[in-house]
Each structure stands twice: as structure tokens, then as C-alpha cells.
Design goal:
- It is a single chain.
- By secondary structure, the protein is of the alpha+beta class.
- The chain folds into 2 domains: 226 residues, no CATH class; 93 residues, no CATH class.
- The chain is built from 12 helices and 7 strands.
- Strands 1, 2, 3, 4, 5, 6 and 7 form a 7-stranded antiparallel sheet that branches.
- The two termini are 27 Å apart.
Length: 362
């Protein structure tokens, strides 16, 4: 009996969630395309460039919108079942609220796994490829908006990259090397830099067109080696943070960049919050399903399907906004990254528990 009901719940909720997700994706794709209209016609950027760019960022939208789609879809499916008195019949046949919660938890396992797969393996490379495509189509570079280029600290080195190309090669590179006391040892200037990945071990940056100035106590020495090898933990994947928002990076890339920032005594709170949000985000679908159940158990006279779906939209928007709000509050108030990332889900889970308790008391 429970297995049949589980399959029935899954079919209704998945169908409604898919319908809502497709509608949201179409709406957001339209907005993304409208945002690209200002760039069409500039630097060779055409309509087909914009359309392909919008299509490539769709996986990122799926990752962002799936919990909201689960909430609205499950609200629609469950309230429709309640409107047709199907949930009343199920409860009269001995289906308890605890069992319904357990079933919804099993139904929610699919969105949890799907969110993790999309957020970890699909959205990050798609977002990076989309940004590279856009930069290439507009003949742009990553750091063109920075007057002095990109500055990165790498151990006892400070690196200034004037231009980072879409293929992640570097142009006009300066490497400042300091000793343990903070005194400047040398300045190396290179026209071009590319990353070479070794078959075994870590890769390295190969700098060409080099002019190197070494400083000693009483003089400076100028040399021009044809090639300079720069061993660094700064891989192209780490530098990809310039092209992809932290929230859309993979867990592996986030962790690698956090380690780099920590090794260089730099602030990493923003990326730590993004890391925890990535780890917690898949389970937001379970919270949304728990939040939808009290609405389904409410008598129809308390509100029709359309009213409850509207409330679901408002709750989904509220959850989306709270995630961004608590990320910003966490940075401003120096909260622990875990607290900033998990608080919105805990608030909505608490709201679901309170509403379910109130419904059960009636």
C-alpha cells in the first residue's frame, strides 16, 4: 500500500515540479537575453552569440531554481490531491502524517541527487564555458576593467597580470619576489604566460619574453632569460574564479581556492560561505517538501489551490532572497560560514515544523 502511494506521490510531484521548472527557466532565459541586448552589435557580438550564452548558463539556473520549483510543484500537486479529497481518503485509511513525511523525504531524494550533480558537475563547467564564449565573442579579456590588471599573492611572490585571456593564458605578467624579511629580491616581466600540465605531479607556468631585474645590497642586475618557469599552486582552475561566481563553482575548485587564500593569509570567508552553501543546497529540496505538507493538510475552505500556489511562489522567492541576504550578513558580521549558509534552511524547516504542529492540533 505504502509503495503504491509513494509511486503516486512521486509521479504527481515530479510532474508538477518539472512543469514549474520549465516555466521558470523560460522566464529567466528571457530576462537573461534581455540583459544581453545592450551588448548586441558591439565588438562583433551578435544575436546568436547572446542566444548561445543564455543557453549555456541554463544549468546554473536549474541549480538555483530547483528547490523553488520543488516547493511550488509539490504545493500544487499536494493541494490538488487535497482538493479532490484524495489525501483525506488516505488519512482515513490509516496514513499518518509521519508516514507522509517519510514518503516525501524519499520523493525528495531525487531532487537532492539531481541538485548535487548539476551543481557539482554540470553548472560550473557550463558557466565557465559561457563566460569564455562571451569574452571571445566580444574580443574582451577577463581583467580589462581593472586599471592595473589582476593582483594575486602566491607565497613570497606578488603577481600582476595585466590581461588574462579567455583561454586562461596570461599577457604582460609581472612577478615580484620578496625575501623572508619582506625586502624586494627581483622583478620579472614577461610578455606571455601559459600553463603546462605535467604528466606526473603539478603543472607550472611557462613565461616567455622575460626581462628580470635582480636586486642586491648595492646594485641591480638586468637579465633576459628566454623562458622563466614559475612553480605555483595558482592553476588555471584556481584563476577561473575570475570568470565564475563563487556560488557556481564546484566544491573542488572552491576548496582549492580557499586553501590558496589561507596559505597566503588572505580573507576566504566569501568562498567558505559559498562552499557550505554548495554542500547544503541539495538538501533544500527536502525542506521545501516538508514546508509544502502543512498546506496540503489544511482544509480546502482555508484557501484554494491558486492561493496556496501563490503562497508557494512568495515563500520560494523569500527563500531565494534569504540565501543571498544571509550570505551578505555573514560577510559583514563575520559569522561562521556554516551559520551563514545553513540559517535560511533552518528557518524554513522551523516554519514547516510549526505549521505542521498547528495543523495537527486542529
Amino acid at each position: 500500500m505504502n509503495r503504491i502511494l509513494l509511486g503516486y506521490f512521486a509521479r504527481e510531484i515530479y510532474g508538477a515540479t518539472l512543469m514549474v521548472l520549465v516555466a521558470f527557466l523560460g522566464l529567466f532565459a528571457f530576462f537573461d537575453f534581455v540583459n544581453e541586448l545592450d551588448n548586441i552589435g558591439k565588438d562583433g557580438y551578435q544575436i546568436y552569440h547572446a542566444l548561445l550564452y543564455v543557453a549555456m548558463i541554463v544549468p546554473g539556473r536549474v541549480y538555483e531554481l530547483l528547490p523553488v520549483a520543488v516547493l511550488i510543484g509539490s504545493l500544487y500537486a499536494l493541494t490538488t490531491l487535497a482538493r479532490h479529497s484524495e489525501i483525506t481518503v488516505m488519512r482515513a485509511s490509516g496514513l499518518s502524517t509521519t508516514t507522509m513525511l517519510w514518503m516525501l523525504g524519499l520523493v525528495g531524494c531525487v531532487p537532492v541527487v539531481l541538485t548535487f550533480i548539476v551543481g557539482e558537475y554540470v553548472a560550473p563547467p557550463a558557466e565557465s564555458a559561457a563566460q569564455q564564449w562571451r569574452l571571445t565573442a566580444t574580443n574582451s579579456t577577463v581583467s580589462q576593467q581593472l586599471r592595473s590588471g589582476l593582483w594575486v599573492k602566491d607565497g613570497r611572490r606578488v603577481v600582476n597580470v595585466r590581461t588574462l585571456q579567455p583561454d586562461r593564458s596570461m599577457e604582460r605578467v609581472r612577478v615580484y619576489t620578496f625575501d623572508d624579511d619582506g625586502a624586494l629580491n627581483s622583478i620579472s616581466e614577461a610578455e606571455h604566460g601559459e600553463y603546462v600540465k605535467e604528466l606526473e605531479g603539478d603543472g607550472y607556468w611557462r613565461l616567455s619574453g622575460v626581462t628580470q631585474t635582480a636586486f642586491s645590497d648595492d646594485h641591480a642586475t638586468l637579465t633576459s632569460p628566454p623562458v622563466l618557469i614559475w612553480q605555483s599552486a595558482l592553476t588555471p582552475e584556481v584563476l577561473s574564479v575570475l570568470m565564475v561566481q563563487p556560488e557556481r563553482m564546484s566544491v573542488a575548485n572552491l576548496w582549492a581556492y580557499i586553501r590558496h587564500l589561507r596559505d597566503n593569509q588572505q580573507s576566504s570567508e566569501r568562498y567558505e560561505i559559498a562552499l557550505w552553501k554548495k554542500l547544503i543546497a541539495p538538501f533544500a529540496s527536502l525542506v521545501m517538501l516538508a514546508l509544502a505538507l502543512p498546506f496540503a493538510l489544511t482544509h480546502e475552505r482555508s484557501g484554494g489551490v491558486s492561493v496556496k500556489v501563490f503562497l508557494g511562489v512568495m515563500l520560494g522567492v523569500g527563500f531565494y532572497l534569504l540565501n543571498g541576504l544571509f550570505s551578505s550578513l555573514g560577510l559583514i558580521n563575520s559569522w561562521t560560514p556554516l551559520m551563514a549558509a545553513v540559517t535560511p534552511s533552518l528557518l524554513f524547516l522551523a516554519a514547516a515544523a510549526v505549521m505542521l504542529y498547528m495543523v495537527e492540533r486542529r
